Amino acid sequence: MKAFEYQHTVRFRESDPAQMLFFGNTLSIVHDAYEEFVQFLGFSFDEWFLNPQVIYPLRASHQEFLRPLKPGQNYRIQVTVKDLSESTFTLQFLFLDDQQQVCCKVETVHVCVDRKTTTKQKLPSRLDSELRQRKAPSL
Known about the structure:
Structural class: alpha+beta
Radius of gyration: 16 Å
CATH topology: Thiol Ester Dehydrase, Chain A
Distance between the termini: 15 Å
Helix content: 10-25%
Number of helices: 3
Shape: globular
Order of helices and strands: EHHEEEEEEH
Strand order of the largest sheet: 1-4-5-6-3
């Protein structure tokens, strides 16, 4: 299945003195792509982020920079489901330049928890189904 794609132009304000994307801004961009991905899956903002039963907080993240991300340049960010378990899912975000070269890889691990008790829960069946349909094939 084709990966979900999000476009982002690196802004001057997002860069550091070396005129590269400041590493701390990467997760902000990733979160923007994540919000769009959630809607792509068919969940409204309120349904996902204001759900009274469950939430999906970030448990871990990893960033790997392979090429500089420069201000003024547009990047295509491919979002895929890398891994899926009973209560967690891992998303991979690949930043691709106009030459289709991967400039940055980000992984985020989210866990499903009960909003009130913050105890780990099984992924809701609808979400599990949507994520499984978009899981990248294992190599």
